[in-house]
Each structure stands twice: as structure tokens, then as C-alpha cells.
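User: Some background: our group keeps a shared notebook of sequences we're curious about, and every so often someone picks one and asks for a predicted structure to add to the entry. Today it's my turn. The entry only has the sequence so far, pasted here. Could you supply the structure so I can complete it?
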Amino acid sequence: MNVVFVEPAFPPTQRHFVRALAEAGATVVGVGERPAEWLDDELRSWMPHYHQVSTVVDAGVLTDTVRHIQSYLWVDRLEAPIEAHTLAAAQARENCTIPGTSVRTAWLCRDKPSMKDALRGAGIPTAASAAVTSAAEVHAFVEATGFPIVLKPRTGAGALDTTRVDDNGQLEQALGRFGGQGVESIAVEEFVEGHEGFYDTVSVDGNIAIDFVSHYYPNVLEAMRTRWISPQFVSTNRVDSAADYRELRDLGARVNEVLGIGTSATHMEWFFGPKGLRFSEIGCRPPGVGAWDLYSAGNDIDLYREWANVVVHGHVGAHPSRRLATGIVALRPDHDGQITGYSGVDEAQARLGEWVIDANLPPSGTPTQPVEAGYWANAYVRMRHPDYDALRGMLDDVGRSVHVYAR
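Assistant: Of course. Here's the predicted structure to add to the notebook entry:
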């Protein structure tokens, strides 16, 4: 099988997909924005061909490049695991008659108001939402649903530029950040109260072959706005044994069906609270910030390889063992600037080192990144344990006792 893979060199986790495809027996053709000489020898060894392009988010550029590749090699699949690349890749697939995620599915998984309209129409519980292009439309939405609401870009991943609004004064400030009274097209949603998590799958021809459930502590919007919090997400190993997850798994399967997700990875976020289980949003691609590394570490599998087995062979070769729960705790500097040092690291290592997967502690002098940049932005520790509750306690311990200093 011949697979065109979009942007193999950046971010660094992309190389794992390329490696896995090569190990599964695929001939991989890379298409990316980085010059070929930037690729290291190991990455080159997994890709017999590489094409540098001006951009990978323009469907026309991708289409022309894929058609050039088709002039010398039959192309079986075109894969793009990064959120921002999925729609252009889908358009290139259809232009070049390559099977895979359709333009309709990629659009519905990118455009949040359209996504939720489609799911509400199928009876799937989700927050009230709308696409708006003016302040008047936002005010009309508030009159219909009440505060609090959430404003966010129509497309994108993560909590960047997502804003909770509790009253009219906050609304006017938030609209100013989105372009003032003549706001650009954005999504406005009812704020859903409850605990937040995510449900990740790898599907084959629309059927979920592998799945994982993870929990956020605290919810993302709070975590990405509050410096003193050391936020976590934790992957549970109780997916098969706890009846509470049956409803979530059924919801995920129904969402995949309605949106037309075929052979693909997915990343779905959800809330559970006073109104019960509610769908939040989904991407037809893997999760970010190394979640697949955590799944692999806790389940005695190479998830990248299982994804590649699905792409190349149409089936998985192994299933999750559910042996260990795994998680990450992000450690924020006390303020922005340059990192000057740490405290509590050696003591935490002595107490918990048996359960540490790895840690990222940037050296002194490293520029900090803002809180809203996410779980990998500065320092973090990743851990695993057979007992989910014990793991949560250890991650809490690290969050309380390990401190990052900056000047």
C-alpha cells in the first residue's frame, strides 16, 4: 500500500505515525512545508519520497501535489492527523478519488455549529449553539438561552480563544476580542455545567475497533485560564469494567455514525452534569499533547502501530490491556519570563519515581509559554498506576509539591 502522509516532520509526534506506517508495510510519501534537508536520517528511512510544498492547508496545493505523486505511484490513502490539515486533505482526497474521510465529514468535524446542528437533528444531546456574524445575533441567542454562554472560533482545537461569558458586561468585552459589533463568524453556545472528559477511538469502516476514556481535572476552560492550577488529564483503565462508561461508548458510536466517520481516529469531548451526558465536540483525528503515548504506556500496545494496521490492513492487531491508568500533570511557572529553576523534584522522585513514565523540565533560561498554551507548554510529568484513584492522588501530589520558578 502507498500512503501520502501530510506534514511528517512537525510537530515531533508526527514521526510516530510515519514510523508505524512503514512498520505496517506501507510505502510512505511525505508532503510537508519543511525543506527535505531538515528531515533526520531516521525519518527519511521511513519515507522513500518527500515533497516540500508552500502550504499544507490549501486544498489546491495539496491536490496538485497528490496528482503529481499519482503520475509516478498509485496512491491508496492520504492521511492527515493534524486538526488544521483535515479539511484540505479531505478536499484533495475527493479531487484525486482517494478513499478516506469525506469533505462532508471533515467539515462537520471542523465547523462546530454545523457539527452540533447535524447531531441535534439526529437526537444526540448537545448544547444549544449557533453560528453568528453580528453582535445582534449573539444578543438574540442570549435572550433565547440565557447566561452563561461560551464564545469560540467556529473551527480549531483546544480552548484557545474560547471565552465563557456570564453577563452583558463580559459579553461586550468578549465581542471586542472577536471583532466588535460586526463580529467575524464565530460559534456561540450554551454553557454546559458538568465534569469534562474525552473519548478517543480508532474506527474501521465506521466500527469502533479501539477506544479510550480520559478525564480532565479541572475542566479545560478553567485549567487554561488559571495559573496556579496544575491541571491534569487522566486515562482510565476501567473502561471495560465500569458500567457507567456504557452510555458514553454508545454516544461515541452514534456520533461517529451520524457524522459519517469511516476508517479514522477520532477525538470526542463530552460533559456529564445535572442535565446528564452531553456531547461537546469531535475531531476526525487523534488527540494532541501525547495522549496516544499515555494510552500505549498503560495498555501494552503501540497505538500508532494499531492505527497504521487499520490504514494498511483494515484491522487492528492488538487490543488495550487496560492494565494501567495513565495521566499527565502540567506544571506552570509562577509567572512568565524565563525559567530559573525548580523545587520539590528530587523529593517527588523519591516518593513516586516507580510510577513516573517521563518528565519534561525545561532548563534554566528557557522562555516560558503562556498558561493558555496547554498541557505541554512548559513543564509536565506523566505517570501510570494500576489503580486509577491512586494515580490521581500521585498526580495531585506532584502538582502540589513540584514548583517551577521564572523571572
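Suggested note for the entry: The radius of gyration is 22 Å. The first helix runs from residue 14 to 23.
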